[in-house]
């Protein structure tokens, strides 16, 4: 088992402290593999010091302890998110994540009937190209026996972090929901979230942006003209007309968001979308409070 950290992960951590937005966007684009990982999420939410300490703590763990934590996390993720695939004569349980595939299958790829699916004991974790990064067997008597481990330390960190997230925060239920819990899933499991999580989150965030734009262009602060309704905010200008929602940046960005019958086009960054989501929560609470106050006044 390797305890080395790839150069790109080290560069991502060290440069993160030195660069400011929007230059950090270039850094995330340059090292997309790390940026999309659990380490990248830790870096974004808690900073370089926390990410560095997390890697250091894992690196200093005794080999057997680290191996067990890694395998336990793979088993947890497969158990919670895996789907039985195959036919009546040969089956396996597969968990497809954003960047990896985890498999639980019979030892030596022996044929196994569907009714014997609980007898599978070999776990394999593969990268996008189908290359096996980790292989191990698990049974109740001998415990875990690793036969291959070619995972660099940062990937081990991602898997252990994701497994712990499932156990600690009960994010399993988030795989079937949207909104805050979907966002928790994407942030908590990062590139080990179920495949499609990021796409679903992005769709939900776009819906939130469109809903906020609609609420603002129909508020008392909006200006209505023959062309449509306009609301001017501190950072953005919102426009709505004939079922078309448009948002313009005030810093020379031009149109950054558009939603019409043909679909949605957006140039909003992840940070922008998170800001809109937070603003949407505040707006919803304000509207609810206003509505409640109105009912109270009417009842007097």
Average pLDDT value? 76
Largest sheet: 6 strands, antiparallel
Helical fraction: 40-55%
Tally of strands = 12
Q: In what range is the share of β-strand residues?
A: 15-25%
Distance between the termini: 72 Å
The coarse overall form would be elongated
Q: What order do the strands of the largest sheet run in, or round the barrel if closed?
A: 1-2-3-4-5-6
The number of domains: 3
Please tally the helical runs, counting DSSP H or I stretches of 4 or more residues.
10
Give the helices and strands as they follow along the chain. HHHHHHEEEEEEHHHEEEEEEH
Q: By helix and strand content, what is the structural category?
A: alpha+beta
Extract low-pLDDT stretches. 171-175
Gyration radius, rounded: 24 Å
Description:
The protein has 300 residues and is an alpha+beta fold. It has 3 domains: 7-60, no CATH class; 63-170, no CATH class; 197-298, no CATH class. The protein has helices at 7-18, 23-30, 32-35, 38-46, 48-60, 63-81, 153-169, 180-189, 197-217, 270-298, and strands at residues 83-86, 91-96, 101-105, 122-126, 132-139, 143-149, 223-225, 228-232, 236-241, 244-249, 254-260, 263-266. The strands form 2 sheets. The chain has a 6-stranded antiparallel sheet with strand order 1-2-3-4-5-6, with helices on one face. It has a 6-stranded antiparallel sheet with strand order 7-8-9-10-11-12, covered by helices on one side. The longest helix is centred in the last third of the chain and has 29 residues, at 270-298.
């Amino acid at each position: 088992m390797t305890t080395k950290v790839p150069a790109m992960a080290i560069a991502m951590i060290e440069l993160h402290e030195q660069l400011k937005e929007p230059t950090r966007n270039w850094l995330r684009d340059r090292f997309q593999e790390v940026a999309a990982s659990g380490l990248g999420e830790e870096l974004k939410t808690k900073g370089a010091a926390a990410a560095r300490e997390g890697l250091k703590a894992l690196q200093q763990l005794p080999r057997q302890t680290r191996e067990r934590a890694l395998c336990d996390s793979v088993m947890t993720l497969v158990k919670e998110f895996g789907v039985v695939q195959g036919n009546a004569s040969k089956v396996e349980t597969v968990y497809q994540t954003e960047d990896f595939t985890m498999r639980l299958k019979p030892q030596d790829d022996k044929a196994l009937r569907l009714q014997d699916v609980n007898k599978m004991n070999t776990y394999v974790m593969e990268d996008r190209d189908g290359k096996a990064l980790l292989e191990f067997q698990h049974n109740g008597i001998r415990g875990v026996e690793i036969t291959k481990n070619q995972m660099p330390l940062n990937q081990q960190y991602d898997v252990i972090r994701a497994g712990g997230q499932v156990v600690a925060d009960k994010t399993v239920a988030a795989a079937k929901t949207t909104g805050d819990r979907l966002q928790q899933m994407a942030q908590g499991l990062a590139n080990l979230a179920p495949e499609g999580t990021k796409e679903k989150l992005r769709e939900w965030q776009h819906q939130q942006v469109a809903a906020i734009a609609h609420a603002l262009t129909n508020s008392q602060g909006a200006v209505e003209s023959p062309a449509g309704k306009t609301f001017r905010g501190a950072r953005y200008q919102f426009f709505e007309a004939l079922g078309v929602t448009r948002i313009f940046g005030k810093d020379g960005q031009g149109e950054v968001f558009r939603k019409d019958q043909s679909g949605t086009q957006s140039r909003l960054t992840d940070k922008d979308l998170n800001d809109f989501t937070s603003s949407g929560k505040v707006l919803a609470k304000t509207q609810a409070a206003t509505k409640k106050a109105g009912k109270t006044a009417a009842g007097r």
